Task: structure prediction
Amino acid sequence: MAELLTVPEVAAQLKVGRTKVYDLIRTNRLASIKVDGCRRIPHEAVRSFIRQQMREAA
Result:
């Protein structure tokens, strides 16, 4: 099963603010799910986002 991360955990990994993480989710650039009203991001979604950013930067 994929590890689910909280918004603050993802923000810390990406070195961005909490608002930026919510913006990435809102614009469908970062996949997430809701668990009883709490937003959670699969670890693989963060890895995929980083890989995509690396491809775009190349």
Q: What stands out?
A: The chain has a mean pLDDT of 95.
